[in-house]
Each structure stands twice: as structure tokens, then as C-alpha cells.
Design goal:
Elements: E1 8-10, E2 19-21, H1 24-66, E3 73-74, H2 81-93, E4 104-110, H3 112-128, H4 134-145, E5 149-156, H5 157-166, H6 174-195, E6 199-203, H7 210-217, E7 223-234, H8 246-249
Antiparallel strand pairs: 1-2, 3-7, 4-5, 5-7, 6-7
Helix pairs in contact: 2-6, 3-4
Amino acid sequence: MNISDSPAITLAPNTIGITVHFGEHGMALLHKIGQVLTTDLTKDLKFKKNHEEDLKQSTFIDQLKKRRSIYVLGKRVHLSQVYLAELIQEAVRSCPSAHNSQSTCIVILMGDAHHHFWNVVKEVQRKLVPAHIFAGAELKVDQCSAGFGTVLFYEDQQIIQQLQKKIPFDAAEFPVWSEQVSGMAQYAVWTCLADAGLGASLQHYNPSIDADISKVFEIPKHWLLRAQLVFGSIEEKVAEKEHYKDEERFMIYA
């Protein structure tokens, strides 16, 4: 190497330090080192980002797995009613819907309203279920009443009818899509509650309770009840879920 291409080191006057002067080859060497460092840092950042995304995906699957049908519920809930109400509403807001119909409507019942709802359900059941087997039906209703709250899922029939008129070609499909929209909302709320440490189970006492519940809670006439999600503290450990064989359920082509 020519001496002129080597870095020259001089002491700056009246200072404690070193000033380094690089020739043309020295600057080229620094440039290459910078490229290597930048490449390595970029790879590290990309790897870290991909790893974090993998963790996020894994966490989301874990959240889905927390959602189970839990029937033995209690009132030992440490989250505020305000927080739970907003959590449930945000879950529904975040759900997709056919043609952005947003047809899912909900009624959130906690405290006395929750108990009143299940008392109404019990009285309706008393009229419908034969006396000699009513004790079993009553036990199931009381089990729901023991929970902390209930979410009623409705589908706005007015919105569905308007879409049927607007897009007559798909008129027959909108009621089907409405059920799918409601199912997604139910699943989203259920999963959010499970992730918050609460148990829940989905009930279907409709349509026998529709008229009485609509009267008690002043439900709009064009709202159609589809399901009831009762939730609360988990008072009994749930058994491991058994799955059918993957080859019986899934087909993958690539």
C-alpha cells in the first residue's frame, strides 16, 4: 500500500484527542465496512420483526383456544361493568358484515337486568316444559342466572330488508349472510371475554322468549333475537377439548 493511502494520525494542537485522516483507499474500506454493518443490522431487524409477528400470530391462536363453553359460572369478576360493556361493543364493531350492513345489534345485561332476564326465561320455560321434567330445565336456567352478565345478539331485519330491495339479485342470500354476521359477532365477543379471563356459554332460548323479552326490555320490533351469551367467572375447570382427525376435516392443495 502506498504511504499516501494509509491513514495519517495527528494530534490536534492544545487538545487531548486524535484526528484521523484517511486516504482514498481508507475511505473505500470504511464504506465497505458500513455496508456490511448496515446489511447485518437490516437482517437482524427483519428477523426480529418476523419473530415478533410469529409471536403475535401464536398469541392470537392462543386467544382463540381460550374460548370454550363453560357452564359453571360465577360473579367473581374484577373487571368493571363499564370496561366490559366497551370491550363487548368494540368486539362487535370490529366484525365484518355483508355489504357493510352492520346488522348485528346487542343488548348487554348485568346486575339486576341479568337476573331479571333469566327469571323471564324461567317463567317461559315453566309454561312450555312438562312439569315432570321442568326441574332439569330450571337447573339449567339457574346455572345461567348464576353468571355475571348476558349479551343478547339481535339482527336488524329492517337493514336486511332494505338490502334485499336495493340488491334484488342477492335477496335470498341476505338472511343467510345475516346469520353468518351474527355468528362472527358472537365468536368475537366470546373470544374477547375468554381473553379477559372470563368463561361463557352460548344459549338459544329464542324464539320462545322473544315476545316477553322484547316487552320487558323495550326491544325494537325489527330486531330479531339470535342467541344469548351468558358470561362470568370460571367456577369449574373445563375438560380438554377433543378434535376430529385433521384428515377428516381439512384439505390442502398447493
